[in-house]
């Protein structure tokens, strides 16, 4: 029998090394806040947040409490970026990110990849598409799976942002998986929402108008180098579409510009416009209010996630019993009646547990 048949590794020089679990949330928090190893600690912290193990979840909650209790001393800026597949988000983030880093910021990019519905894994390809940005000493890039979470962002993206800020990164970019009806969620965890559009989008442009146009704080039409006239026309149509959106309470005027992530055309100007937005919103108190509202949303999300996890565990437990769910369906005429029975049992079990 060959070594391969015996289960020997294909490469004998490769050795699996399990990630060491942090000794405590306090040690991990201290590593995030200082020292040359903060990048390693940051990766370890985000991995902890993504874990579904019970012990890790408790440690992650302790870390989140420490992060919230000790916010960064310097102001930070959180930018959400979304756009249809093929619009050039990765190319744009590399070009824009280099401009951010050259302006003196420490940049963290949380690139959210879609998860496989079968394995739960993700492509995690953004690091390979942002080679120059990855090598920059003041840039941290972390691809993370959505884990099936709606909204185009990961379930733990909010906590990951806090980790990046604790590690000294003052400019945070959250890249979403694409434009959809649930993309409002990235708007609910960032200070500004940048929508990337492509020229000559046709019906795709109409779906953007109906979906997230009113959430955008700035809109940039990419690929102006290859399709300059089409980019101008698309920008014009988007400006017209903005008139359909309700008036903003912060009185900010959303701008639509044309850029080329490939050549860098318009990217520096876009950075200046976003900086202007941050200054005005911060001085007027809107950023502080926006983050306060986001914390309330985060609380609701955590409560909903815990309840759904408990309900899922309850249903799985019933399914393990003999004809558990099927018996309830057979005993009741309608699906709604069977649903009411199951939820009543679930609520009663939780009530008994609390007592």
From TrEMBL:
Q: Give start-end of the signal peptide.
A: none
Sorted alphabetically, the Gene Ontology cellular component annotations on this record are: cytoplasm
- Gene Ontology molecular functions: GTP binding; GTPase activity
Q: Taxonomically, which superkingdom?
A: Bacteria
Q: Which Pfam families match?
A: MeaB
Q: Which InterPro entries match?
A: GTPase_ArgK, P-loop_NTPase
List the CDD domains: MMAA-like
Cited Gene3D superfamilies: 1.20.5.170, P-loop containing nucleotide triphosphate hydrolases (3.40.50.300)
**Family of the protein in this entry:** Belongs to the SIMIBI class G3E GTPase family. ArgK/MeaB subfamily.
What is the recorded name of this protein?
A: Methylmalonyl-CoA mutase metallochaperone MeaB
Species, as recorded? Neolewinella agarilytica
Q: What is the lineage of its organism?
A: Bacteria, Pseudomonadati, Bacteroidota, Saprospiria, Saprospirales
């Amino acid at each position: 029998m060959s070594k391969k048949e015996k289960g020997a590794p294909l490469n004998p020089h490769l050795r699996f090394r399990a990630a060491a679990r942090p000794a405590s949330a306090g040690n991990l928090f201290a590593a995030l806040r200082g020292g040359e190893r903060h990048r390693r600690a940051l990766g370890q912290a985000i991995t902890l947040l993504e874990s579904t193990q019970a012990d890790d979840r408790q440690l992650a909650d302790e870390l989140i409490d420490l992060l919230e209790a000790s916010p960064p001393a310097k102001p930070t800026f959180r930018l959400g970026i979304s756009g249809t597949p093929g619009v050039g988000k990765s190319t744009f983030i590399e070009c824009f990110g280099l401009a951010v880093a050259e302006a003196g910021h420490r940049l963290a990019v949380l690139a959210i990849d879609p998860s496989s519905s079968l394995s739960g894994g993700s492509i995690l390809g953004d690091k390979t598409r942002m080679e120059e940005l990855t090598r920059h000493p003041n840039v941290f890039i972390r691809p993370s799976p959505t884990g099936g979470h709606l909204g185009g962002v990961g379930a733990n993206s909010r906590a990951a942002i806090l980790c990046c800020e604790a590690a000294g990164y003052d400019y945070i970019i959250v890249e979403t998986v694409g434009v959809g009806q649930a993309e409002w969620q990235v708007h609910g965890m960032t200070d500004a929402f940048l929508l990337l559009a492509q020229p000559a989008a046709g019906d795709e442009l109409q779906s953007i108008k109906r979906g997230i146009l009113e959430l955008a704080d700035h809109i940039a039409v990419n690929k102006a180098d290859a399709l300059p006239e089409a980019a101008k026309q698309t920008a014009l149509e988007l400006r017209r579409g903005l008139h359909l959106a309700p008036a903003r309470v912060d009185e900010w005027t959303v701008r639509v510009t044309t850029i080329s992530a490939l050549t860098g055309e318009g990217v520096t100007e876009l950075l200046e416009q976003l900086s202007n937005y941050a200054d005005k919103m911060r001085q007027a108190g809107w950023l502080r209010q926006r983050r306060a509202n986001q914390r309330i949303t985060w609380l609701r999300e955590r409560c909903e996630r815990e309840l759904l996890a408990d309900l899922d565990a309850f249903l799985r437990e019933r399914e393990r019993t003999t004809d558990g769910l099927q018996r309830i369906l057979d005993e009741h005429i309608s699906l709604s009646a069977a649903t009411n029975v199951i939820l009543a049992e679930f609520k009663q079990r939780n009530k008994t547990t609390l007592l």
